[in-house]
RNA sequence: GGAGAGGUGGCAGAGUGGUCGAAUGUACCUGACUCGAAAUCAGGCGUAGGUUCAAACCUACCGUGGGUUCGAAUCCCACCCUCUCCGCCA
C-alpha cells in the first residue's frame, strides 16, 4: 500500500511512476474522492465535537440537579445529521481504501524502466555451461527413465500439475531442502522458522496477495464466514509474523528462513509449462525473509540475493541474475532480482529464485513497525527471496547432471545429505 | 464437543452510564540532588487521522462488529481470541 500522503502531495509523480510499470491510475477519480472526503470529514468532526460538548454540559447540569430539557432539545436534531455524515464518511473512506489496496508499489529508481520480460537487464552470469557428448534429455525423460518421477500417478491422485517422486529422487528432493536450510542458518545467520501453511485473509492482504490475486490462491472454507488460504509462498506467514508489531530497533534486521510447501492455482497460465515439474500446483521452497531498517533495505536486498546465489554456486549450477524491469516486477515489489538457472534441455535460463525489496509497501498494509532512534514507531522494510525453489533446483540437477547411461550424478555439496552416495543409478 | 473465567496504554492493573484517553504501580525520557551512580524529588511519556505555514485545536481508538442512549471502557447482541477443567484425538 502506498502512503496516502504521497498521493495527496504528489499525485502526478505517483501516476507517472505507476505508468512505468504499466498501471493506469485513475487520478481524477481519486482526486474527486479526496476532495469529497475532506469536506465530509471536516463536517463530521464538527458535528461530533458539538455532540461531545453538549453531552458534557448535560452531565454537568445533571450533577448539579439542574433542568436539562432545554439542552436536550437542542441536541435532538443533531443525531440524524451526525449519523448520516458518519455513514457518508465511512463509505468514502472504504472506497478510497479499496482503491489504495489495488495500487501496486512504485518502482525504485534503480529498477530499469521497461514494458515486459524482454526489457529485463542481465546483471551477471555465473558458472560455465556443460557440453554434452550425447543427446540431452529434459528432466521429465531423465526422471521417468529412472522410474522415480511419475506424473501419471499424480494425475490419478490429484490431477494435472502435480508430481510423485520415489526412491533416490524423493530423497534428493528432501536433501536439497536440508542442504539449503543448513547453509542459510549456519552460514548466513538466519533463524529457521516453522509456520502455518493455511493463513487468514488479513495475512494475505498484508503481503499483497489480496484483494487483487484471489484467483491465484487455493482456499478452504474454515466455517460459514471464514476462509483460510493455502500459502503460495512462505513469504506470507513469515512476513506476517511482524504484522501489528513494533519491534525493537536493536533487533533489526530480523532474518528468517523457512522450508514450506507452496500452493498456486496457476490460473491464467493454461498451456504454459504444462510438461514436467516447472510449474506445479504444489512445490517446496526455502524462503529467506528479512525485516530491515528502511535505510538498510537495499543493502539487504543485495546480501539476500547473494545468499540465494550461494546455493547455486555450491551446487555448481550455471545461472544468471536479472534485474526485472518496471513492467515485470510484482505487485508489491519496488525492485526485484530474478535468479535464472540454466536448463540445457530448454536451452534457456529459467527462474529459480526471485528476490525483492518491498520497502514499506507490505509493512504499511501490515502495520509492521520498529521504534526509531527518537522512540517513534516507523514502518519497517521487508525483503525476501527464494533460497531456492526446491522443485526447480531438482529439475536443474536432473538436466545439468544427467549421464549418458541415464543416471544422474549427485552434486558434491549434496552427497553428505545422501549418505555419501555419488550417483543415482538406473535400476532395471 | 461440553462447562467456566477473561481480553483496558510497553508491562502490571483499577475503572459497571457523564468532567475517562482512561486511576495507580512499573518501565522509559528530561531536570534537580551527587565526583559519578543508586535512592529520592519534580516534570514528561499511547496510536492514527483532520484543519493548519506553524502554534494550536478538533476527531477516532479500552479484542472485533453491530445496537441502546443526549452521552458507552462501562448496558444489550453476535463473533474472534486466550486461559482453566472435562471429553475426544495425530
Give the helix proportion (percent range).
25-40%
Count of DSSP helices? 13
Write down the Rg: 27 Å
- Strand content of the residues, in percent? 15-25%
The largest pleated sheet is described as: 8 strands, mixed
Distance linking N and C termini: 57 Å
Shape: elongated
Strand order of the largest sheet: 1-11-12-13-16-10-9-4
Low-pLDDT residue spans: none
Report on the structure:
- The structure is a single chain.
- By secondary structure, this protein is α+β, with helices and mostly antiparallel strands.
- Helix content is 39%, strand content 21%.
- It has helices at 4-9, 11-19, 27-63, 69-76, 78-101, 139-145, 151-157, 167-186, 201-207, 235-239, 297-314, 361-366, 390-400; strands at 121-126, 149-150, 164-165, 191-192, 198-199, 219-223, 226-230, 246-247, 254-263, 282-292, 319-323, 335-343, 348-359, 369-371, 377-379, 381-389, 408-409, 423-424.
- A hairpin with a 2-residue loop joins strand 6 and strand 7 (226-230).
- The longest helix has 37 residues, at 27-63.
Please describe the structure with a list of short key phrases separated by commas or semicolons.
alpha+beta; eight-stranded mixed beta sheet; 18 strands; 39% helix; RNA-binding
Give a quick summary of the entry:
This protein is an alpha+beta fold and 428 residues long. It has helices at 4-9, 11-19, 27-63, 69-76, 78-101, 139-145, 151-157, 167-186, 201-207, 235-239, 297-314, 361-366, 390-400, and strands at residues 121-126, 149-150, 164-165, 191-192, 198-199, 219-223, 226-230, 246-247, 254-263, 282-292, 319-323, 335-343, 348-359, 369-371, 377-379, 381-389, 408-409, 423-424.
